[in-house]
Amino acid sequence: MYKLPTFREDDGMTTVEYAIGTLAAAGLAAVLYLVVSSDAVVAGLTALIERALSVKF
User: Fold this and answer.
1) Is the dihedral of CA 25, 28, 30, 36 positive or negative?
2) What value, to the nearest 5°, has the Cα angle with vertex 42 and ends 38 and 47?
3) Which is nearest to 50 in space by CA: 5, 42, 17, 33?
4) In this predicted structure, what is the pLDDT of residue 13?
5) Does the model's pTM come out above 0.70?
6) Are 41 and 47 within 8 A, CB to CB?
7) pLDDT at 16
8) 9 — phi, psi (to 5°)?
9) What gap in Å lies between CA 46 and CA 28, rounded to an integer?
10) What pLDDT score does 15 carry?
């Protein structure tokens, strides 16, 4: 018969690990926001959307 694994008290993330993970996620989000909102990316996306909307069927 298969026995389910038992978990010890130290399994899972602690509060400090959650805090570090949250800070890392916030830092990554800030970097991605800066990249996506840069002038070059905005201009490229705008040109792509305008080209897609101007296609004649």
Assistant:
1) negative
2) 150
3) 42
4) 65
5) no
6) no
7) 86
8) -65, -25
9) 24
10) 85
Taking a C-beta distance cutoff of 8 angstroms, is the pair 41, 35 a contact?
yes
Tokens of 11: 């399994």
Q: What is the 3-state secondary structure (H, E, C) of the chain?
A: CCCCCCCCCCCCCCHHHHHHHHHHHHHHHHHHHHHHCCHHHHHHHHHHHHHHHCCCC
Residue 31 phi, psi (nearest 5) = -65, -45
Q: How far apart are CA 4 and CA 19, in angstroms?
A: 30
Determine the Cα–Cα distance for residues 24 and 9; give it in Å rounded to an integer.
Answer: 25
pLDDT in tens, 7-47: 666 656 678 888 999 999 999 999 999 999 999 999 999 99
